[in-house]
Every structure is written in C-alpha cells, then in structure tokens.
Design goal:
alpha+beta; 5-stranded mixed beta sheet; 6% strand
Length: 486
C-alpha cells in the first residue's frame, strides 16, 4: 500500500489555485477588452463621420491617420492615408456629374467606398464584441468576485464564506474536474476554515483519507488445482474479521507454521483477504463521491470506511508478523545449514582471539566477570567448537538485530561466546559473557562492537599468538574451575 503524501495534497491545492487564477484572469482580460472596446467604438464612429464629410475630408486626413493607427495598425493606416491623399488631391473627386465621370474618377470613388465599408465593418464587429463582453461580465460578475475572494482567502489565511464555497460548483462544471478531485478540494477548503477556527491546530482529513489514500492490490500467483478449497476457507476467515469481535478473531487466522498449510497457501489466503478489503475501501470511495453533499449519509460512509480500514490493517499486521517469524526461522535454518556444511568441510577450526592490548586478550578480561561455576561450560564450548565436536544446536546466528548479521554465538546454559568467521577456516573469538536476562542485547552489542576488519598482516600475528593465547585461557579456566568446585 502506498499512502498519500503531503506532496500530493499540496499539488492538488496548487493546481486548484492555478485553475482559479486563470479563470479570474479570463474575466479581467474580458473586462479590460470591454473597456477598450467602448473607447474603440467611439473612435471608429468619429472615423466614419470624418470619412463621410467629403468637403472636409482633405482637412481631416491627419486626424483620420491617427485614428486608423490607434484602432488598427500603422501599416494599415499608412495604406488608408495614401489612398485618401490620392482621392482628395484629384480635381475630379468632388464632381457630382456622373455623365462626365471618367474610368479614373470611378476608380477613385470605388477606393473611397471601400474605405467607408471597411470602417463600418470594423465598427459593427466592435459593437457585436462589446455586447458579448458586456453580457459575459453581467452573467459571471458574482461568481468571479467569489473566485477572487477564495483566491485572496487562501493566500492570506482568511475565512472562506459558504456563498463563495457554493460558487465553486459552477467553476468545477466549467473546468470539467473529476468528482473525486472536486470533493477533495471542498475538503481542503473545509480544513482551511477549521484550522482558522482552531488557532492553527491541524485537523483530521477523514474524507481526504478516503479520496486520496492509495491501496495497491497484492499480486497473487497461485495455480494449484485445489484453490477452491482455499477460497472456501477464505470466506470463513473473512466472516471472522467481519464479526464485531474481530480483534479476538484475528488470533484464529492461519499461522506460518501450521502443519496443514504451505507458505504458498499461506500467502494466497492473506493476500486474497487483503485484496477483498481493498475492494470494500474502493466501494466506500465511490459511495462518498455519489453522496458527498448529503451530510448524514456522508457521516455513515466515514464511519464505515474507518471500520473497514481498521480491519484491513489488522489483517496486514498479522500477515507481516507471520512473515517476519517465517523469515527468521529460514535465516536460522540457513545458518545451521552453513555451519553443518562447514563442519563437513573443515572438522578442525583455527580460533583466533581479539586482543585488549599487547599482553591480554579480551576473553581473559571477560573471565574476571564470569562466575567460576561457569568456567567448565566456557572451556567445553571453546574446545568442542575448535575440534568440531560441538553439537549444532549450541551454535546460533545472532539474528535479533540487523547490526548482528554475520556474527554467531556459542551457547550453553547462560554462557555466551561471540565469534565471527573471517575466512580460510579462521574464527575470531570476540569475547565471552554470562547472559543475565532472556534478551540481553546490550551484552551482545558490547562483544560485537569489538570487531573490526583485520589486514592479512594482523591476522597472521593473531594466528602466531593463538597457541600461547589458548594455553593461558585454558589454564585459567582449568585452574579456577577447580577452585570454584572446592
């Protein structure tokens, strides 16, 4: 399962703010265009009046040129002015006698008519656009104001009024946002308001949990012929979890070391159950989308979701616990297998002893803290491990903590001797201790921390000292165990 993250929530809110910003900007752009359009309409009306006053046309050319440049562009304005100069400077321009018109006069007049038609067309287009913009602004005025208020409130941490929240329905419809994202945004706005009312205290986002939590289904690759029998068992297990007493019933789910079940069957049962609860969560999600705005139904769905989620996690927790237990057992089996293989290959071991200083090994110092009644067992562990006669059950991998990986211990009763294999049938004895409690990890840490990787030269020095070290250690063990027995 991959839980939603703060990044996903922040990203959703960011995208919403961006969409809102673009919507408001669209309104402001139209408002500005409407304002400019009203000015352009007045200018174009003046242009038409100047063009229609034929007698004063020549005197108005400069004003017409400025007007055209403002409304259109300098390039278009220059073409218009060139044509007007051509027309107004022609002696025949103002002649009204059609019989005396020459082809040249007709061409001039046609150019003039085209100027009028073009200017009138521009005016009509501006008027039409002006009406459209005016209608849009009037229709959307209230909602755009609400959008701006939401923008400002989110930015400056102000309370968002209900009427602003209600206005988002139209916004979501126009933006074509999926229902799930719409509801998530409503929930974020609701959280924004609640946080303000609670002096910034973070609140639970229950609906957001349903909408944004991600549950990835487990892969199931099980192809045995009798899978139908397992499915029947799964139905009975789910009925136990669906029961009100499911916390107790969890204990009745299959265990990893049940004799009648294999690890493959175990995985199939748990993964199928978990997937069925993910289906129930997805059903809750759909129900929330369909009934979000019905407050009473929404409350029921939230309670149902939380209940299903709790049961899902209890199954997942049980599954993880059993898997961890299985992995530990397999790790121990593997270590025992390696030890047995080592025993077959190398019946005699070279024991090297880590040194406290030039004169003493660590284990000699450790013996001062070990009661003498344990010396006999300590001596047996070292000697039998060295000659390969120590039973496998007295050699154990340290698997309770990841930092102990690769280390082993010799154990008999309460005595523990920690060692590490360093290759070429060499075993580095790190120290010994008597276990005070069932899980004395502090004692193990102390012994394990003595280890450091040795150079080939350092290993050779320890090998050269091994015989004399052993003589001193075994002499002390042998002498003091007799004292302890008197």
């Amino acid at each position: 399962m991959s839980k939603r993250t703060d990044y996903e929530i922040n990203n959703l809110l960011y995208n919403f703010k961006q969409r809102l910003y673009l919507k408001v900007k669209e309104y402001l752009d139209i408002k500005e265009r409407y304002k400019n359009s009203k000015v352009r309409i007045e200018i174009l009306k003046n242009l038409l009046e100047m063009l229609e006053e034929e007698e004063n046309l020549k005197d108005n050319i400069a004003g017409i040129g400025i007007t055209m440049e403002i409304c259109l562009s300098k390039e278009i304005s220059d073409k218009f002015i060139d044509t007007l100069f051509e027309l107004t400077n022609n002696t025949y321009y103002l002649t009204k006698d059609e019989e005396n018109f020459s082809a040249e006069k007709v061409e001039f007049l046609n150019k003039y008519k085209r100027i009028l038609i073009y200017a009138q067309r521009l005016l009509n287009l501006e008027v039409i656009q002006n009406r459209k913009d005016h209608k849009f602004l009037e229709t959307h005025k209230d909602e755009i104001i609400s959008y701006k208020k939401i923008q400002s409130s989110l930015k400056y941490n102000n309370y968002i009024e209900q009427r602003e929240i209600d206005s988002l329905k139209k916004f979501f419809d126009e933006e074509d946002l999926p229902t799930r994202k719409q509801i998530a945004i409503y929930e974020l706005i609701n959280e924004h308001n609640i946080k303000l009312n609670n002096n910034g205290i973070r609140v639970s986002k229950k609906s957001l949990d349903i909408l944004l939590d991600k549950y990835n289904k487990f892969n199931i690759d099980y192809k045995y012929d009798y899978v139908e029998n397992l499915d029947k068992k799964i139905i009975s297990y789910i009925s136990l979890i669906d029961d009100d007493n499911y916390e107790e019933n969890i204990k009745l789910l299959p265990k990893i070391d049940d004799e009648y079940i294999s690890i493959e069957e175990f995985d199939y049962i748990y993964r199928t159950m978990l997937n069925k609860y993910i289906d129930k969560i997805e059903e809750c999600r759909k129900n929330l989308e369909e009934n979000y705005f019905d407050i009473e139904i929404r409350k029921v769905i939230l309670l149902e979701y939380q209940d299903i989620k709790n049961r899902y996690y209890r199954i997942l927790s049980k599954y993880s616990e059993e898997q961890e237990r299985y992995n530990k057992k397999e790790a121990v089996k593997e270590e025992i297998k390696e030890i047995e293989e080592d025993k077959e290959k190398e019946p005699i071991r070279n024991l090297l002893y880590t040194r406290r200083n030039e004169q003493f090994t660590y284990i000699e110092s450790d013996l001062k803290d070990i009661p003498e009644e344990y010396y006999d067992r300590t001596e047996n562990l070292l000697k039998n491990f060295k000659d390969g006669t120590l039973s496998v059950d007295k050699i154990r991998a340290l698997a309770s903590n990841s930092k102990f990986k690769g280390f082993r211990e010799l154990k008999e009763d309460q005595v523990r001797i920690v060692f590490k294999e360093i290759g070429n049938n060499n075993y580095l004895i790190l120290g010994a201790s008597v276990k005070k409690v069932d899980s004395d990890s502090l004692m193990l840490s102390k012994l394990v921390n003595r280890y450091r990787k040795l150079t080939d030269e350092e290993i050779e020095i320890l090998k050269n000292n091994a015989k004399s070290d052993e003589e001193k250690i075994f002499k002390k063990l042998d002498d003091d165990k007799r004292k302890g027995s008197r």
